[in-house]
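Methods — Computational structure assignment.
A single polypeptide chain was analysed. Its primary sequence is given first, followed by the predicted tertiary structure written as structure tokens.
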Amino acid sequence: MDLMFLHKNLSRVELHKKIRRNEISFGGNLKLKIYGKLDCRSGKRMNKQNRIFFVSEKEAQLKGYRPCGICLKRAYKKWKDGTI
């Protein structure tokens, strides 16, 4: 089941409902293939057209996204070291 959501396809109300229902837990950058926490300062500056949302870290990783080096430091280090 594909659980990714493009930000440009969600209204503000839909987005907030999905977050409250835990249907969205992580955000990512389509172009850079990076995912992170929804409250990440780097992710908040991202262009809406490039933003994608995931239900879980596993979903993001399965889609080929890497962890953010700012908000997911431990996961990023594991990814960088090749241990993920």
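Note: The two ends are 22 Å apart (CA to CA).
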